[in-house]
Amino acid sequence: MFWHKEPDIKYYVCTINKTFAKPGQRMYFQVNYTEENLLDYIDPNNDTLMVRLADGHLLAECRMMLGTDKRATITTNWSEFRRRANIREGDICAFRFRITSKRRLVLTVHRL
Hints:
Layout: E1 12-15, H1 18-21, E2 27-29, H2 35-41, E3 48-53, E4 59-66, E5 72-74, H3 78-84, E6 92-99, E7 105-111
Parallel strand pairs: 3-7
Antiparallel strand pairs: 1-6, 2-5, 3-4, 4-5, 6-7
């Protein structure tokens, strides 16, 4: 007998491809968010989230939106964060979304 169990560790893992590594590009996530899910954590008047490198040495405020294809998308400042974090094409990264006690969305980036 099988049943669905949510994973204990909730990471989105991907290889940074050519698109994600280009200056000025966005980071797309294949996660099932709806506009309602995102609005639970992102104020429509301030649709930003903090993105931090797992070692804590880099923190950036980025914009989060729901793309037309229903993928969660990090836009503003992602390219600059990626450059400063020295994340390049071919790198494997794990992304973890977390909700703070103030119900703000934080994204932690782990380079593997």
